[in-house]
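quick q for whoever's on today - can somebody do inverse folding on this one?? i tried earlier but teh output was garbage lol. tokens:
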């Protein structure tokens, strides 16, 4: 199959590379010349473990290429995937579909022969029908079908998720398009990955419902954590006891500073907005959005309390600023709320993050970036563990105590054992314990 991927971000690039690894011929298109130039030189513009090697292998095998030439790439394709961004639209919480519709228009003009136009981006219910209309308006002669194929990969484990998905969702309404999609995903079907065929609206809804449910699960345990702190329970034990129930499951039950990232914040807002538009309010999701904001603010209060209600003039070390480990993605990271609050309160903030600098340097003005955790902690009056990168999971607590001015730690990911921290001489707070 000849496939074209529009957009070479986290989803477009990973999908394009993995499809080429299935044996398909793939062209990846982006409108940013610097991205395409980097990719042509074998450089992956994002941090995603394993991606650079897999990309190099498939480029060398002649199955994968990159171009700025949208029209040529689309004309050749049996299927064109739209993998562009759908950020929150300013002001109203709706998903901004400008990039999706712009891509649809360009595809319509360039299409040649029967083509399936597949939306991989996360889009509100009704978007694929609108894409169909746009293509017809733009090119009434076009021979095409649309398909909705939302992506569920997680940054940091994207290749594994793409290659071994829990399921693939395909919204499709003609046999011809279904055949094309079945051929594209045949390598996964052969590995027994479940492929769920459905109508367009249901496929679109599955993606939002799944993300909103996961965001709800995280928010639920964060709210339980706040209560645990009041009643003297330990949220880690509570999560463990809850998660062993097969009906609940242990994933997404780790209390922390609030969810962030490129998907949950914008997708919960978009779902709430869809509910309002259809007069079917998503009240749980609306509460989740509010509680998540409150959770981030609660972390600021926790840090202030640890620092005797003032961080003014104090050196505070922040370990990790990306929204989770193993990614360089800073979009809607809790650090973007917490760090500016500390800087605003007069703290002298030193930041260490294995991949955060590239995005974070512009997003977190007024902080000092460091390369090494222990150097960053020298003479600090508090350490905040914000993102649980592996290198922050086994710190030498005695060494920390020896190097800090006042040995205090706010562990917002519950990585350390409170008793061990106390034994090392740390004044230690965590979440829900
Ligand atoms: P991204 O911002 O990293 O990448 C989008 C890319 O599309 C950019 O490189 C941009 O230059 C390019 N682009 C935009 N308009 C274009 C056009 N007309 N022609 C060519 N290129 C164009 O976005 P992302 O994180 O990969 O997300 C893409 C979609 O996938 C979103 O809808 C997102 O919700 C969804 N999604 C993301 C993840 C994730 O973990 N990041 C997971 C599942 C689903």
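ok took a stab at it. sequence:
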């Amino acid at each position: 199959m000849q496939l074209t991927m529009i957009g070479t971000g986290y989803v477009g690039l990973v999908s394009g590379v993995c499809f080429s690894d299935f044996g398909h011929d793939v062209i990846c298109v982006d409108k940013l010349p610097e991205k395409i130039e980097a990719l042509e030189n074998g450089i992956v513009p994002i941090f995603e473990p394993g991606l650079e090697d897999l990309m190099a292998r498939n480029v060398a095998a002649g199955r994968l290429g990159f171009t700025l030439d949208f029209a040529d790439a689309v004309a050749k394709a049996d299927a064109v995937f739209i993998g562009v961004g759908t950020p929150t639209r300013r002001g109203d919480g709706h998903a901004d579909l400008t990039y999706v519709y712009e891509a649809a228009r360009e595809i319509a003009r360039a299409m040649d022969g029967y083509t399936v136009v597949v939306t991989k981006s996360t889009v509100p219910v009704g978007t694929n029908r609108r894409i169909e209309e746009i293509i017809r308006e733009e090119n009434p002669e076009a021979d095409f079908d649309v398909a909705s194929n939302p992506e569920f990969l997680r940054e940091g484990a994207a290749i594994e998720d793409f290659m071994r998905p829990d399921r693939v969702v395909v919204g499709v309404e003609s046999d011809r398009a279904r055949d094309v999609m079945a051929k594209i995903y045949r390598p996964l079907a052969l590995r027994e990955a479940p492929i769920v065929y459905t109508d367009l609206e249901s496929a679109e809804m599955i993606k939002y419902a799944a993300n909103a449910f996961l965001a709800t699960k995280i928010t639920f345990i964060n709210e339980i954590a706040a209560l645990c702190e009041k009643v003297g329970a330990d949220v880690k034990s509570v999560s463990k006891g809850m998660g062993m129930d097969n009906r609940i499951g242990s994933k997404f039950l780790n209390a922390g500073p609030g969810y962030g990232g490129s998907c949950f914040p914008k997708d919960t807002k978009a779902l709430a907005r869809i509910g309002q538009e259809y007069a079917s309010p998503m009240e749980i999701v609306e509460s989740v959005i509010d509680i998540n904001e409150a959770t981030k603010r609660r972390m600021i209060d926790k840090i202030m309390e640890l620092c005797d209600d003032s961080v003014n003039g104090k050196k505070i070390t922040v370990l990790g600023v990306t929204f989770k480990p193993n990614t360089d993605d800073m979009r809607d990271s809790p650090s973007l709320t917490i760090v500016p609050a500390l800087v605003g309160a007069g703290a002298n903030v030193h930041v260490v993050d294995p991949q955060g600098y590239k995005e974070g340097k512009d997003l977190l003005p007024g902080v000092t970036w460091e390369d090494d955790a222990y150097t960053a902690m020298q003479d600090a009056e508090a350490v905040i563990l914000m993102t649980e990168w592996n290198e922050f999971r086994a710190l030498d607590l005695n060494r920390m105590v020896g190097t800090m001015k006042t040995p205090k730690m706010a562990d917002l990911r519950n990585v350390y054992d409170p008793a061990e921290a106390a034994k090392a001489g740390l004044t230690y707070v965590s979440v829900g314990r």
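fwiw The chain has 18 helices and 14 strands. also Residues 200-231 form the longest helix (32 residues). so keep that in mind when u check it
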